[in-house]
Design brief:
Shape of chain A: globular
Oligomer: heterodimer
Number of strands of chain A: 2
Largest sheet of chain B: none
Order of helices and strands of chain A: HHHHEHEHHHHHHHH
Strand content of chain A: under 5%
Strand content of chain B: under 5%
Number of strands of chain B: 0
Radius of gyration of chain A: 19 Å
Order of helices and strands of chain B: HHHHHHHHHHHHHH
Structural class of chain A: mainly alpha
Helix content of chain B: over 70%
Helix content of chain A: over 70%
Largest sheet of chain A: 2 strands, antiparallel
Radius of gyration of chain B: 22 Å
Shape of chain B: globular
């Protein structure tokens, strides 16, 4: 089994999940749980393919996909922060809306003979660094967006842990009452964090469509949004750790596919289940438990107090 | 879970009406955009769901597991727990029933009932995992149940590929369950298996237990106040785990009757999504058992009618999924707005009283 090739594939195919998980880590730190990540990614995947096909530009498609993610996140924010719908209910409903909506729109948009596929983003090799034995090709022969993902993770980690904005975000998720007393606009902080999650989930969905698959298919995100939620837990709500955590999911999946195609006697389902079981273990031990933002998933409004 | 979850989900005739109207209008516009006459489409949707005995039987067959999965959400919701794991619990229930029938065919003497109960127990055990996590460690049950859904899918895939793979060894599926275990039809007229009666019975039973018994009362206290439940000597952990297990039991039964009444064998990738529809039914039903059962019937009809719609009008069945989402959003948002309006009016009345006196 070629471990190096598996890792190259793992990083590439996990980029959408890493993007979504980075944004979700920030959003959850502010107290907003986005069960609707899946729907944000799916909407973005559709929009990015549609725009890329009609405009002929992958870059425009990417931007449109990111914007679509923000739009769905905005809808989520309206439902959760203004209409005070339960966060989980709102998220699950948005997933349904995206699943049905994109499927219907795809039939409207890509009718008949028109070819609805695009060439995917190629890899961008970084000279010198890619010469490093073993890890060189893994880390430095990736897609541009995979590098961007690492940069975004670093930046958001810095913002979250070293800036006033980061403190406000954490305060909104840990103790919104105290934060409000200190003059933090909890709703605005949560809105901004939620939109950030939407932007990154949008980039993730667009990369899935334009960087991996190259076309749109119904339900093509197929659970990646939910996996991103698990990645956030494994990463203990740290946007930077979300990247290796996502790569771990990708690596076990790649091993599973390898075993399946090579006809090995080891049941590949062990590797399919492994990341979920690992996430459960992290959740069920106090390490994972303590790291969770205290007011995660809880509505907060000033007018009922 | 949010403190106000149950309050938000409280049913209200106004919000149902507005929700239904909005969903119909938006649905009609979508159909027009797709170039289909909305009235023709509506007609074939209704015909597909209720048009003849076959279609009606189909609707009931689809509604039964959705109703059971809906109750699997409703019961833990009383303790303010959201069980998103209906799909996983349903899968392990199906797996347990099929596995038992294939490994111990001797139990045919006792009949299908053993398999149905076994499916229920498997679902209950699967649901107890997040229950224990919540009660003992404070683990978020929403995330835990989602993770267990994926784990159940992997478990099922392993089972049909390895220990339970069919004797012919061609497809990743189990052998057919022996005929003695298969559920008979309700009657000559109605093309539905008698398993649907389990759902028909479960809805009023759960409604009764939750509303009229000490257990239901204690369960609600567990959800509403830690202090009160401690004062009354209610074991919080027992009710948290118990309500999850009870929900999982019903979802597991749904899986078992689906196997014995419809499929007859377990196939790779079996995941009909009834657990998720159950969640939708519980949301629409405002967390109340009877209303959830009615909502399950509507969702079953939408599934049956949606299939007919796709055949006759080329409208994708997924349009129905979008309608569900619009139905939930408009119903819940209206319910919230109506609630707030009433609260404000009550407050205004309250303020007027001293002035008048």
């Amino acid at each position: 089994m070629d471990i190096q090739a598996l890792l190259v594939t793992a990083l590439w195919t996990m980029t959408p999940i890493a993007f979504a998980a980075i944004g979700e880590a920030v959003s959850e730190r502010s107290g907003v749980l986005n069960i609707g990540l899946e729907g944000m990614m799916l909407t973005s995947a559709f929009v990015s393919i549609y725009v890329a096909v009609t405009s002929g530009s992958l870059e425009l498609g990417l931007l449109a996909g990111a914007a679509a993610g923000v739009l769905v996140a905005g809808l989520n924010a309206v439902l959760v922060l203004w209409a005070h719908l339960d966060q989980v209910v709102a998220g699950l409903t948005l997933n349904l809306l995206a699943l049905g909506g994109t499927s219907v729109l795809a039939r409207l948009a890509f009718t008949g003979t028109e070819n609805a596929s695009v060439p995917t983003f190629g890899s961008v090799d970084i000279p010198l660094l890619k010469e490093i034995p073993f890890i060189g090709p893994i880390l430095f022969e990736q897609r541009l967006l995979t590098y961007l993902c690492v940069i975004v993770g670093l930046v958001l980690f810095f913002v979250l842990t070293r800036t006033t904005t980061g403190l406000r975000i954490q305060a909104a998720g840990e103790d919104p009452d105290a934060a409000a007393l200190e003059g933090v606009n909890v709703r605005r902080v949560r809105l901004a964090s939620n939109l950030t999650a939407g932007l990154l989930a949008g980039l993730g969905g667009a990369f899935l469509a334009l960087g991996i698959v190259g076309t749109f298919a119904d339900n093509m995100v197929s659970g990646r949004g939910f996996i991103a939620l698990a990645v956030v837990i494994i990463a203990r709500w740290n946007p930077l750790l979300a990247i290796p955590a996502a790569a771990f999911f990708g690596f076990t999946e790649a091993i599973g596919i390898q075993l399946q195609t090579s006809g090995s006697s080891i049941p590949f389902q062990i590797f399919v289940a492994l990341p979920y079981v690992a996430t459960l273990v992290v959740l069920f031990t106090r390490i994972g438990n303590k790291a969770a933002p205290r007011q995660l998933g809880q509505a907060w409004r000033v007018d009922v107090r | 879970m949010s403190e106000r979850l149950q309050g938000l989900l409280r049913s209200d005739a106004t919000s149902y009406a507005i929700g239904a109207v909005l969903a119909t209008v938006v649905g009609g516009l979508v159909l027009l955009a797709l170039g289909t006459d909305p009235f023709t489409a509506m007609n074939s949707l209704i015909r597909g769901a209720f048009g003849n005995q076959h279609n009606l039987g189909n609707t009931l067959t689809l509604a039964a597991p959705i109703a059971l999965a809906g109750l699997a959400v409703v019961i833990p919701l009383e303790a303010k727990l959201l069980n998103v794991g209906g799909d996983g619990q349903l899968l392990v229930g199906a797996l347990a029933a099929v596995a038992l029938s294939l490994v111990f065919p001797e139990i045919a003497i006792v009949g299908a009932i053993v398999l149905i109960v076994a499916g229920g127990i498997a679902g209950a055990m699967w649901a107890s995992i997040p229950g224990v996590g919540r009660a003992k460690l404070g683990v978020n049950e929403v995330v835990a149940t989602i993770l267990l859904n994926f784990t159940a899918l992997a478990l099922l895939s392993w089972a049909v590929n390895h220990p339970l793979r069919e004797t012919a060894d061609i497809y990743p599926q189990t052998d057919r369950v022996a005929d003695v275990f298969l559920l008979p039809k309700v009657g000559e007229m109605l093309q539905a298996h008698i398993g649907i009666l389990v759902a028909v019975a479960a809805v009023p039973i759960v409604a009764f237990v939750l509303a009229k018994t000490m257990t239901g009362y204690r369960l609600r206290i567990t959800g509403s106040s830690d202090e009160v439940s401690r004062y009354l000597g209610i074991s919080r952990a027992r009710f948290v785990i118990g309500s999850m297990a009870a929900g999982g039991f019903l979802a597991g039964i749904a899986g078992a009757i689906q196997m014995l009444g419809v499929q007859g064998r377990l196939i790779e990738g079996f995941n009909p999504g009834y657990g998720f529809d159950g969640l939708v039914a519980a949301f629409l039903g405002g967390g109340r058992p009877i209303a959830t059962g009615v909502a399950a019937l509507v969702l079953g009809a939408l599934r049956a009618g949606g299939a007919e719609l796709e055949v006759t009008t080329q409208v994708p069945a997924s349009a129905v999924v979008m309608l569900q989402a619009i139905l939930i959003i408009s119903t819940l948002v209206t319910r919230h707005a109506v609630g707030r309006y009433r609260a404000q009016r009550a407050l205004a009345r309250h303020r007027e009283v001293p002035a008048a006196a």
